[in-house]
Amino acid sequence: MISIERPEKRNAINAEVTEGIDAALNELEDNPDLWAGVITGTPTMFSAGTDISSRDARATERGGEYGLIRRERVKPLIAAVEGNALGGGFEIALACDLIVASTTARFGLPEAQRGVIATSGALFRAMRALPINVAREMLIAGTVLSADRAFQLGLVSEVTQPEEACQAAVALAERICMASPFSVRQTLAAINRQFQDDDAAGWEATSIAVEAILASEDMKEGSAAFFEKRTPIWKGR
Predict the structure, then answer these.
(1) Catalytic site residue 221?
(2) What pLDDT, in 10s, does the model give residues 53-83?
(3) CA 32, CA 137: separation in Å to the nearest integer?
(4) Are strands 77-81 and 37-40 parallel, antiparallel or unpaired?
(5) Of the listed 29, 82, 91, 158, which one is catalytic?
Protein backbone atom coordinates (compact mmCIF):
# COMPACT_ATOMS: atom_id res chain seq x y z
CA MET A 1 0.00 0.00 0.00
CA ILE A 2 1.33 3.43 -1.02
CA SER A 3 -0.29 6.37 0.78
CA ILE A 4 0.04 10.04 -0.19
CA GLU A 5 -0.25 11.87 3.12
CA ARG A 6 -0.02 15.67 3.08
CA PRO A 7 -3.52 16.52 4.29
CA GLU A 8 -2.57 20.10 5.14
CA LYS A 9 -1.74 20.57 1.43
CA ARG A 10 -4.63 18.46 0.07
CA ASN A 11 -2.07 15.72 -0.65
CA ALA A 12 -0.43 17.90 -3.30
CA ILE A 13 2.72 16.40 -4.76
CA ASN A 14 6.12 17.91 -3.99
CA ALA A 15 9.65 16.52 -4.32
CA GLU A 16 9.45 14.52 -1.09
CA VAL A 17 6.20 12.83 -2.09
CA THR A 18 7.53 12.16 -5.59
CA GLU A 19 10.60 10.47 -4.15
CA GLY A 20 8.45 8.41 -1.81
CA ILE A 21 6.16 7.20 -4.60
CA ASP A 22 9.14 6.42 -6.78
CA ALA A 23 10.88 4.41 -4.06
CA ALA A 24 7.71 2.46 -3.25
CA LEU A 25 7.04 1.61 -6.89
CA ASN A 26 10.68 0.62 -7.41
CA GLU A 27 10.23 -1.80 -4.51
CA LEU A 28 7.00 -3.14 -6.00
CA GLU A 29 8.67 -3.76 -9.35
CA ASP A 30 11.94 -5.15 -8.00
CA ASN A 31 10.72 -7.33 -5.12
CA PRO A 32 9.68 -10.76 -6.48
CA ASP A 33 7.52 -11.34 -3.41
CA LEU A 34 5.25 -8.41 -4.31
CA TRP A 35 2.70 -9.13 -7.05
CA ALA A 36 0.37 -6.10 -6.99
CA GLY A 37 0.11 -2.65 -5.45
CA VAL A 38 -2.44 -0.08 -4.27
CA ILE A 39 -1.92 3.69 -4.20
CA THR A 40 -4.21 5.94 -2.20
CA GLY A 41 -4.41 9.25 -0.38
CA THR A 42 -6.02 10.07 2.96
CA PRO A 43 -9.60 9.21 3.99
CA THR A 44 -10.97 12.51 2.64
CA MET A 45 -8.61 13.37 -0.23
CA PHE A 46 -6.76 11.47 -2.95
CA SER A 47 -4.59 14.27 -4.36
CA ALA A 48 -4.91 17.80 -5.72
CA GLY A 49 -1.94 17.22 -8.04
CA THR A 50 1.24 19.27 -8.17
CA ASP A 51 2.03 21.52 -5.22
CA ILE A 52 2.35 24.72 -7.22
CA SER A 53 3.54 26.63 -4.16
CA SER A 54 6.75 24.57 -4.11
CA ARG A 55 7.16 23.67 -7.81
CA ASP A 56 9.81 21.11 -6.90
CA ALA A 57 8.15 17.82 -7.91
CA ARG A 58 10.85 16.79 -10.37
CA ALA A 59 10.44 13.71 -12.56
CA THR A 60 12.32 10.58 -11.52
CA GLU A 61 14.50 8.43 -13.73
CA ARG A 62 12.31 5.32 -13.62
CA GLY A 63 8.90 6.83 -13.02
CA GLY A 64 8.81 10.22 -14.67
CA GLU A 65 6.40 12.77 -13.22
CA TYR A 66 5.35 11.96 -9.62
CA GLY A 67 7.53 8.85 -9.83
CA LEU A 68 4.69 7.10 -11.68
CA ILE A 69 3.36 8.81 -14.80
CA ARG A 70 5.89 7.47 -17.34
CA ARG A 71 6.87 4.32 -15.48
CA GLU A 72 7.10 1.11 -17.47
CA ARG A 73 5.39 -1.26 -15.05
CA VAL A 74 4.79 -5.00 -15.29
CA LYS A 75 2.88 -5.46 -12.02
CA PRO A 76 -0.72 -4.28 -11.55
CA LEU A 77 -1.32 -1.04 -9.66
CA ILE A 78 -4.75 -0.03 -8.36
CA ALA A 79 -5.77 3.52 -7.37
CA ALA A 80 -8.03 3.68 -4.30
CA VAL A 81 -9.70 7.08 -4.45
CA GLU A 82 -11.43 8.89 -1.59
CA GLY A 83 -12.38 12.53 -2.07
CA ASN A 84 -10.90 14.70 -4.81
CA ALA A 85 -8.55 13.40 -7.52
CA LEU A 86 -7.94 16.64 -9.37
CA GLY A 87 -5.40 17.67 -12.00
CA GLY A 88 -2.24 15.67 -11.43
CA GLY A 89 -4.11 13.63 -8.82
CA PHE A 90 -6.47 12.40 -11.51
CA GLU A 91 -3.50 11.82 -13.80
CA ILE A 92 -1.97 9.56 -11.14
CA ALA A 93 -5.19 7.52 -11.11
CA LEU A 94 -5.22 7.40 -14.93
CA ALA A 95 -1.67 6.01 -14.88
CA CYS A 96 -2.83 3.04 -12.78
CA ASP A 97 -4.30 -0.15 -14.20
CA LEU A 98 -7.57 -0.01 -12.26
CA ILE A 99 -9.46 2.52 -10.12
CA VAL A 100 -11.64 1.80 -7.09
CA ALA A 101 -13.48 4.79 -5.64
CA SER A 102 -15.75 5.57 -2.73
CA THR A 103 -18.91 7.63 -3.14
CA THR A 104 -16.95 10.68 -1.98
CA ALA A 105 -14.60 10.56 -4.98
CA ARG A 106 -14.56 13.34 -7.54
CA PHE A 107 -12.42 13.38 -10.68
CA GLY A 108 -11.47 16.59 -12.46
CA LEU A 109 -8.97 18.40 -14.68
CA PRO A 110 -9.16 22.11 -13.76
CA GLU A 111 -5.96 23.21 -15.50
CA ALA A 112 -7.60 25.28 -18.27
CA GLN A 113 -9.45 27.31 -15.64
CA ARG A 114 -6.02 28.31 -14.33
CA GLY A 115 -4.46 29.17 -17.68
CA VAL A 116 -2.36 26.03 -17.86
CA ILE A 117 -2.74 22.54 -19.32
CA ALA A 118 -2.72 18.92 -18.20
CA THR A 119 0.91 17.83 -18.57
CA SER A 120 1.04 14.35 -17.02
CA GLY A 121 -0.79 12.17 -19.50
CA ALA A 122 -4.41 13.28 -19.26
CA LEU A 123 -4.42 14.77 -22.78
CA PHE A 124 -4.38 11.23 -24.16
CA ARG A 125 -5.17 8.91 -21.23
CA ALA A 126 -8.45 10.63 -20.36
CA MET A 127 -9.91 10.01 -23.82
CA ARG A 128 -8.65 6.42 -23.65
CA ALA A 129 -10.41 5.79 -20.34
CA LEU A 130 -13.57 7.80 -21.10
CA PRO A 131 -15.78 8.67 -24.07
CA ILE A 132 -13.92 11.35 -25.98
CA ASN A 133 -16.61 14.01 -25.54
CA VAL A 134 -16.59 13.47 -21.76
CA ALA A 135 -12.80 13.69 -21.67
CA ARG A 136 -12.89 16.82 -23.83
CA GLU A 137 -15.45 18.45 -21.54
CA MET A 138 -13.34 17.68 -18.48
CA LEU A 139 -10.24 19.12 -20.12
CA ILE A 140 -11.70 22.36 -21.49
CA ALA A 141 -14.69 23.06 -19.21
CA GLY A 142 -13.36 21.67 -15.95
CA THR A 143 -16.35 19.36 -15.55
CA VAL A 144 -16.00 17.12 -12.50
CA LEU A 145 -17.14 13.48 -12.47
CA SER A 146 -18.71 11.88 -9.41
CA ALA A 147 -17.77 8.33 -8.47
CA ASP A 148 -21.11 7.00 -9.72
CA ARG A 149 -20.80 8.79 -13.06
CA ALA A 150 -17.22 7.57 -13.43
CA PHE A 151 -18.42 4.02 -12.74
CA GLN A 152 -21.20 4.33 -15.32
CA LEU A 153 -18.66 5.46 -17.91
CA GLY A 154 -16.26 2.60 -17.12
CA LEU A 155 -13.48 4.69 -15.59
CA VAL A 156 -14.00 3.19 -12.13
CA SER A 157 -14.15 -0.56 -11.53
CA GLU A 158 -16.02 -0.45 -8.21
CA VAL A 159 -17.74 2.16 -6.02
CA THR A 160 -17.72 1.70 -2.25
CA GLN A 161 -19.07 3.43 0.81
CA PRO A 162 -16.93 6.28 2.22
CA GLU A 163 -13.56 5.21 3.63
CA GLU A 164 -13.87 1.72 2.14
CA ALA A 165 -12.06 2.25 -1.16
CA CYS A 166 -8.72 0.99 0.18
CA GLN A 167 -10.30 -2.15 1.59
CA ALA A 168 -11.99 -2.90 -1.74
CA ALA A 169 -8.79 -2.13 -3.69
CA VAL A 170 -6.79 -4.50 -1.51
CA ALA A 171 -9.45 -7.18 -1.98
CA LEU A 172 -9.22 -6.67 -5.75
CA ALA A 173 -5.42 -6.91 -5.57
CA GLU A 174 -5.77 -10.15 -3.61
CA ARG A 175 -8.05 -11.58 -6.31
CA ILE A 176 -5.48 -10.63 -8.93
CA CYS A 177 -2.78 -12.34 -6.87
CA MET A 178 -4.73 -15.60 -7.00
CA ALA A 179 -3.82 -15.73 -10.71
CA SER A 180 -0.41 -16.65 -12.07
CA PRO A 181 1.83 -13.60 -11.55
CA PHE A 182 3.66 -14.44 -14.74
CA SER A 183 0.40 -14.56 -16.70
CA VAL A 184 -0.71 -11.26 -15.17
CA ARG A 185 2.56 -9.54 -16.05
CA GLN A 186 2.51 -10.87 -19.61
CA THR A 187 -1.10 -9.80 -20.03
CA LEU A 188 -0.39 -6.25 -18.86
CA ALA A 189 2.72 -6.10 -21.03
CA ALA A 190 0.71 -7.15 -24.08
CA ILE A 191 -1.98 -4.55 -23.36
CA ASN A 192 0.57 -1.78 -22.81
CA ARG A 193 2.57 -2.73 -25.88
CA GLN A 194 -0.45 -1.95 -28.06
CA PHE A 195 -0.50 1.65 -26.76
CA GLN A 196 3.21 2.42 -27.15
CA ASP A 197 2.85 4.33 -30.42
CA ASP A 198 -0.21 6.19 -29.14
CA ASP A 199 1.64 7.14 -25.97
CA ALA A 200 4.59 8.49 -27.97
CA ALA A 201 2.23 10.59 -30.09
CA GLY A 202 0.39 11.72 -26.96
CA TRP A 203 3.56 12.91 -25.24
CA GLU A 204 4.68 14.72 -28.40
CA ALA A 205 1.31 16.52 -28.66
CA THR A 206 1.48 17.36 -24.96
CA SER A 207 4.97 18.83 -25.35
CA ILE A 208 3.83 21.07 -28.22
CA ALA A 209 0.90 22.35 -26.17
CA VAL A 210 3.05 22.89 -23.06
CA GLU A 211 5.58 24.92 -25.05
CA ALA A 212 2.83 27.22 -26.27
CA ILE A 213 1.31 27.56 -22.79
CA LEU A 214 4.64 28.44 -21.18
CA ALA A 215 4.98 31.41 -23.53
CA SER A 216 1.42 32.64 -23.03
CA GLU A 217 0.10 35.66 -21.16
CA ASP A 218 -2.83 33.61 -19.91
CA MET A 219 -0.53 31.31 -17.95
CA LYS A 220 1.00 34.27 -16.14
CA GLU A 221 -2.44 35.70 -15.43
CA GLY A 222 -3.83 32.35 -14.26
CA SER A 223 -0.95 31.87 -11.85
CA ALA A 224 -1.24 35.39 -10.48
CA ALA A 225 -5.01 35.09 -10.06
CA PHE A 226 -4.64 31.77 -8.24
CA PHE A 227 -2.21 33.13 -5.65
CA GLU A 228 -4.16 36.38 -5.32
CA LYS A 229 -7.43 34.42 -4.96
CA ARG A 230 -9.28 36.36 -7.63
CA THR A 231 -11.01 35.70 -10.95
CA PRO A 232 -8.54 35.68 -13.87
CA ILE A 233 -8.79 38.31 -16.59
CA TRP A 234 -7.86 36.34 -19.69
CA LYS A 235 -6.06 37.81 -22.69
CA GLY A 236 -6.70 34.82 -24.94
CA ARG A 237 -3.04 34.60 -25.89
Answers:
(1) no
(2) 777 778 999 999 999 999 999 999 999 999 9
(3) 41
(4) parallel
(5) 91
111 among known catalytic residues = yes
Of the candidates 111, 158, 204, 221, the residue annotated as catalytic is 111
Are residues 82 and 39 in contact, defined by beta-carbon separation less than 8 angstroms? Answer: no
Contacts with 81 (C-beta within 8 Å, 6 or more apart), sequence order: 40, 41, 46, 93, 99, 100, 101, 102, 105, 107, 147, 156, 165
The domain limits of the chain are 2-174+181-228
**What's residue 20's pLDDT?**
97
- What CA–CA distance (Å, rounded) separates 110 from 145? 12
Single pTM value for the model:
0.95
pLDDT, tens digit, 9 for 90 and up, residues 19-32: 999 999 999 999 99
Q: What is the CATH number of domain 2-174+181-228?
A: 3.90.226.10
